[in-house]
Amino acid sequence: MAKQDALFKYTLRLGDNALILSQRLSEWCSYAPLIEEDLALTNLSLDMIGRAQALLKYAGEIEGMGKTEDTLAFRRSERQYYNNLLVEQPNGDFAFTMARQLFISAFELYFYSEMEHSKDKTFAAIAAKTLKEVKYHLEHAKDWVIRMGDGTGESHYRIQHAVNELWMYTGELFEMDDVDKDLIEQGIATDLDAIRPLWNKYIGDVLETAALIVPENGYMQTGSRKGIHTEHLGHLLCEMQYLQRAYPDAKW
Amino acid sequence: MDNVQNTVSKEEALLAKFEEKVQAGEAIEPRDWMPEAYRKHLIRQMSQHAHSEVIGMQPEGNWVTRAPSLRAKQILLAKIQDEGGHGLYLYSAAETLGISRKEMIEQLHNGKAKYSNIFNYPSLTWADIGAIGWLVDGAAIVNQVSLQRTSYAPYSRAMVRICKEESFHQRQGYEIMAQMMQGTEEQREMAQDAMNRWWWPSLMMFGPHDTDSPHSADAFRWKIKRHTNDELRQKFIDKTVQQAEVIGLTIPDPDLKWNEAKGCYDYGRIDWEEFNRVIRGNGPCNKQRLDHHKKVHADGAWVREAAEAYKNKHKKQSVNLN
């Protein structure tokens, strides 16, 4: 695989995770259980839009076909997206959103801690900025998961249910293919095998504190590395890309 | 009998001191004595203001997931976040008057407390996001600038902060409209259509004409209000007409014309029947907005209960440890 091609795909993967999760979180706008939480979820979403902008802009530069971050965000189709299946899952209730956030933010904390030392200067710079944000995202999600786990009977049930439902999408976070191998050799990408035990330990500790059971590692759904998604992504893109698709000549 | 007499004269003395203070332009702080009617007026006005910020998140939130660029989404989300923040500090400011946020939300749900009528109109196209920022926030600023000097100090302090952010919103809304007016035929039509739908409701935001304004007399004497509805409305029209002309938008009022003698614009008749109908609950989105707020509040109850239960458990634990 040509270096540029691998780097392009890898950058899209990271950019798409930020983009798609920012879209999901923005759906909470005016729907949160209290205003403080409406503002917090918007904050998370804003951080991720910023990260998506930086990464997709970089992807466009690597590809060298004159695409901007907006072209890449609003004019690609379902099969051209490489975000993890976890982040495209619908918001569900507040417990579902927080369990999803805990899983992804813990992953991103370890991932970007490694990425900060990447030989790719752009990645290293984006990682340094992202880390500051992710630490807050993770604290926020962790606090809520513990509160819900150790709150009322209902909240305990809901958060355990969310953890169970989402568990099958966590295996994919650590999947590696030729793209990863190429870039790890060059000192650019993060070795996901190395961060997996850290993630397992962290999540195990949080769930224990929250009096929750860590699900068994059963069937793990995958596909995103090849652009195979759950049915949810198509609907999300439909909504997100509506104006750009309906008025292709317009500038906004 | 003497006691009653004493209480009455004590109350009269306090009232006289209060009125004197307000007339001298001094601010009233939460610890200061204030007449019950002043407190009630402020609770009504401030909770209405807070609810407006929060309900206003809905029509704008309607376009967050469909914003046409990453930058546009970022700006819109940040704006809505600001509105939520304004709601929060207005609720806190109102709480200094002895009412809780919970009570204020109950009053919103049972219809005792209102929110700005403007949010009972739908945001139908992306251009509405421009129109809301430019016209609705633009009208709100005119009103809020005047409230920066309102006599109740926590309200006035909240307004100073809010005004700074609102002027950003107005510029951002105007930028959306300007950009669309320079765009394709379809974009220009969308922008003009939004202008046509939001212009008159924006003028209604200032409330009835001065001759028909029910809450004004006390509000002026106590310096809660500093300018009349019609003065503020005129100010808004005069600054907005020019802005519309610059980008090629037409104000949907055939009677609008510059009055040389008065040095301001004359404008057509506002449809007060529509205004009153929407206030009474029969606008295009009244039911939708309130139902949304009630549903979200009810759906989120288990989360708030969980947080409360967790706090109580851990409070007890730390007490036991001691």
How many domains comprise the coordinates of chain A? 1
State the order of secondary-structure elements of chain B, H for helix, E for strand: HHHHHHHHHHEEHHH
Could you state the order of secondary-structure elements of chain A as H and E? HHHHHHHHHHH
Query: What structural class do the secondary elements of chain A suggest?
Result: mainly alpha
Largest sheet of chain B: 2 strands, antiparallel
Mean pLDDT of chain A: 97
Given as residue ranges, the uncertain stretches of chain A (5+ residues, pLDDT < 50) are none
General description of the model:
The complex is a heterodimer of chains A (252) and B (322). Chain A has 252 residues and is mainly alpha-helical. Chain A has one domain (3-246): Up-down Bundle (Ferritin). Chain A is 67% helix and 0% strand. The longest helix of chain A is centred in the N-terminal third of the chain and has 29 residues, at 35-63. The relative contact order of chain A is 0.14. Chain B is mainly alpha-helical. Chain B has helices at residues 2-23, 36-55, 57-61, 70-95, 101-109, 126-147, 153-181, 185-204, 216-221, 229-247, 272-279, 286-299, 301-321, and strands at residues 257-259, 264-266. The longest helix of chain B is centred in the middle third of the chain and has 29 residues, at 153-181. Chain B is globular, with a radius of gyration of 22 Å. The termini of chain B are far apart. The model of chain B has no long low-confidence stretch (mean pLDDT 94). Chains A and B meet through α1, α2, α3, α6 and α7 of A and α3, α4, α7, α12 and α13 of B.
